[in-house]
Amino acid sequence: MTPDASLLSALLPLIAQLSNHLSEPERYRRLLAALRTVLPADAAALLRFEENGTWLRPLSIDGLSPDTLGRRFRVSEHPRFAALLAAGQAMRFPTDTELPDPYDGLVTHHTDAPLPVHDCMGCVLMVNEQPWGLLTLDALQPGSFAGDAPLAALQAFSNLAAATVATAARMRELEQTAAQERQRAEHFRRHTPVIHTRLLGHSAAMRNLQRDIATVAASDLAVLITGETGVGKELVAQAVHAQSLRADQAFVSINCAALPENLVESELFGHVRGAFTGAVQERAGKFEQAHQGTLFLDEVGELPLATQAKLLRVLQSGHIQRLGLDRERTVNVRIIAATNQDLERAVRSGHMRADFFHRLGVFPIQVPRLRDRDGDLLVLAGHFLERARSELGLDQVRLETAAQAALLDYHWPGNVRELEHCIRRSVLHAMRRPRTHQQTLGITAEDLKLPHTPPTAPRQSAGQPVSDAASAFPDAITSDSTSLNAHVDQFKRTLIMQTLQAHNHNIASSARALHVDRSNLLRLSRRLGILTS
């Protein structure tokens, strides 16, 4: 088959599929697969510009390490990307170029660093006469892209890729318009590309989460976000706000667990000068700061019952009253709350008002655990790895194959937060090894310092005792069939009582020993029935 015939046979199916109902990742995957049937590349990537061309984010890859999808490349740090952008059309780099390759250590067929002399070319994608992104190809065999034919084929593909991108964007707009009014759809499109609220991952669990966020974002309903510690509940809250009609207003967050009990109402509702000892000047509370916007109540289960009652009134009427002031103010605030506790159990035990719980939980969102997000782990690892590389001023960092396997085998009880800390720590460990200036920094399984624990924990049946925990804490946990939260509370109760006894029931000394705030220890002790006043 001639080169022209080969190109035509690859282009025709893609053109025919433009009007098909395909997801964006699938459109882009087929585009790169077709590109590699025409051009002898070992790796190909489709990258999109973000923040006015400051960053490039991979949308689809073929032949590169999976963690590449989690990275963001600053154009100013990668001369080859900058050269492609400046060229404005398909170009091939000389095989002897001294410009560093952004994919050093990321080509799956080549793990040694740096990349040897090889062929590399790319092209800018223009959508609506504006640079949208890049198509890049790498071949480990020098001379693979020799001659004019590969450049012409890549230019033709870039035009088709631009049409694919435009079609994908149009399909997305149509889906949004069908779900909500055009005004809200346009608002959603304008505000979703907010970097700090971007939720990484393409797993089924994350797609379901994104659908839940999109469903509730356009309304003003209260949202209750639940999930284990470290899953990213605040990021979900930010995403709900960013996709709402309040996106251009304030997003105010407050950690209810970190508030001393005597200052909770002042923080929420504000105070006037002289309202209490230490109130030397008037101050607006979080509700006033969030007027017309969103107030995020993190760890909402830690709020005292008296504060819950006042919050319920605000949720119902929108009226607040600063401490020390008789006059009421009216606020318009959307409430998003989050907790890792079982609030239904807290209602049954009397530590949360049932009416407050039901008012908060109008639309509950459960954030999946990291171990339930199949396929997302290496994407997240790549994102954190690229962030660490940029912060530490490194040329390139890659995850060795054994390190990737170790990450996938671990069960991640601390979820995404634990993964982020693990990646940052591993980069620092790897930097201690001697290496030449040109060597890519490789993260090994040993650098991760992961505990040697089984990848998955067996599920407990409803009546099965928690034997491991019971053997570790025989005084705190019994073998009756109570919930996990009951066991945790019993353990907390035992630990606090032992600490109080060891410190002659001195609250301040016990709080220091337990590394918690004194007011939080008092509040927890009252909730657990250790203290009655």
Summarize this entry quickly.
The chain has 533 residues and is α/β, with parallel strands linked by helices.
Question: What features would you describe in this structure?
Answer:
A hairpin with a 4-residue loop joins strand 1 (43-50) and strand 2. The chain is α/β, with parallel strands linked by helices. It has helices spanning 3-16, 24-38, 79-87, 149-179, 182-191, 204-217, 233-242, 264-269, 286-289, 305-317, 343-348, 354-360, 377-392, 401-409, 415-431, 445-448, 467-472, 484-502, 507-514, 518-527; strands at 43-50, 55-62, 73-74, 91-93, 119-127, 130-139, 223-226, 251-255, 270-271, 283-284, 294-298, 319-320, 329-330, 334-339, 363-366, 397-399, 441-443.
Gross geometry: elongated
Name the strands of the widest sheet in spatial order. 3-2-1-6-5-4
Compute the number of strand runs.
17
Instruction: Give the number of helices.
Output: 20
Arithmetic mean of pLDDT: 80
Give the amount of beta strand, in percent: 5-15%
**Beginning-to-end CA distance, first to last residue:** 87 Å
Rg over CA atoms, rounded to whole Å, is: 28 Å
Helix/strand structural class: alpha/beta
Contiguous low-pLDDT stretches (5 residues minimum) are: 185-197, 454-482
Helix content: 40-55%
Largest sheet: 6 strands, antiparallel
Keyword list:
17 strands; 533 residues; six-stranded antiparallel beta sheet; elongated; five-stranded parallel beta sheet; 15% strand; alpha/beta
